[in-house]
Amino acid sequence: MKWTTDLYLKGLGVLELVENAQQVVEDWLHRKRGQHGGLAGKTAIVTGGNAGVGYATAEALLARGCSVVLAVRDRGRGDAAAARLAATAAGSGGSQQLGGRQRKGGSSGGQQAGGAAAQGSTAGGGPQQAEAAPEQPEAAQVAVEILDLAILSSVRAFAERWKASGRSLDLLVCNAGIMVPPERTITADGFELQFQSNYLGHFLLANLLVRQHQRQHAQHAQQPAQRASGAAGGSQGSGSGSSGPLRVLFLSSMTHIGGDLSDLTDVPYCRRPPWNTFAAYCNSKLCTLLAAKHMDRLLARAAPSGDGKRDAAVAVHPGLVNTALAAGYFKQMPPKLLRPLTDPFFTHVFCPYMLRSPEAAAETVLYAATAPADEVGGRYCGTAPRVTRHSAAADDPQVAQRLWDLSAHLCQLDADDLVS
Ligand SMILES: NC(=O)c1ccc[n+]([C@@H]2O[C@H](COP(=O)([O-])OP(=O)(O)OC[C@H]3O[C@@H](n4cnc5c(N)ncnc54)[C@H](OP(=O)(O)O)[C@@H]3O)[C@@H](O)[C@H]2O)c1
């Protein structure tokens, strides 16, 4: 990274911290959860849902009656998170409190994706209810599925299991991420770790799932009778048969401004010395933002004109958030010798008081998930919640197209599995 870019980023970082501090105050003043309607009875996948912003997003979705699949790389951490989420949901009054929509008695519709273990269905949502049970709210479910974005075959396997489950998908939150690993690491697929974990894995996942959704939607449209009977079970339900619009969210970051894709052929590998771990993170986040915008352009083009209820892709900047990722980044800034002194400052003062809470950040994510497609499709939703600024580089459709084509090539994605 050039020293001028470095200086520019530091300046922006300070500005971001000031803005973020304002946001922290606003979050504190408006501590109540936002409305974010229309989530009840829907199904979401949250990558990296076991920690940080992903966990808080899963919690917020469940609280609004949306079933969540935590797509995680570690079964133990995923199971522990799901158990905590289920306990929180039950503690807040079970399914009645989750805002589940009314449904007829019978199956809860909470299938597990490809045989994933249910990790604590919320109270009152057991799958074995009597046929003659009176109307009651459908309980939101939380489940765990293995997904390692740093292994492309794991992404493909996840998508295959999702397809086999027959479940429909309403919301995909491409959230998982890593930031500034100390060493340049190359994945088994041959790509720089941050590029693959933050960007390429999500690119593959989103394309596979969006194309599955589009096929399901087309099938649905061809079978009006089946659709009618599906509607009795809930047109927005978590079972198979529902095919409402799909929303895809990509967690980007203000650091995308430091991204530089002028040598696109090197970006996936970071072969050119000197390797700069922060520059690689910035690039992964710029790629993510470009992909979100490009995917939305393609989805908007494919949508029948009309009511605005279309599939949409949205980029999100959650703000600077008090998570392991942010804490790890700030803690490695001072020289190593000083860290025994500075670490406690970051842990006890800076991160809890200067950064947003994951719960507040989840409100921004939910805004991006529920605002009308015409309002947020292809936009970059930031703190407040509002559409926020982004770099000119993120707005270049030609770079976006080149990146899209390159990514499809790197993932060896068949034309039929690529959103186009
Ligand atoms: N925190 C901030 O200030 C901030 C600011 C801007 C943008 N963001 C973005 O927000 C997103 C969430 O970050 P966070 O702050 O919540 O971080 P976090 O607390 O560190 O959580 C990251 C999550 O991603 C998962 N993950 C990492 N690599 C993975 C892989 N290869 N496959 C599957 N899951 C993987 C982690 O799983 P393990 O628990 O197994 O490690 C964890 O669940 C990231 O995309 C980040 O870039 C964060």
From TrEMBL:
The annotated regions of Gly residues compositional bias extend over 231-242
The answer to whether the entry has keyword ATP-binding is no
Q: Where is the composition biased (Low complexity)?
A: 128-137, 219-230
- Spell out the residue ranges making up region: Disordered: 91-137, 215-242
Q: Which UniProt keywords apply?
A: Oxidoreductase
**Coiled-coil portions:** none
GO MF terms here are:
oxidoreductase activity
- Keyword Repeat attached: no
Family of this protein: Belongs to the short-chain dehydrogenases/reductases (SDR) family.
What is the name of the protein in this document? Uncharacterized protein
Gene source species? Chlorella ohadii
Give the classification, highest ranks: Eukaryota, Viridiplantae, Chlorophyta, core chlorophytes, Trebouxiophyceae
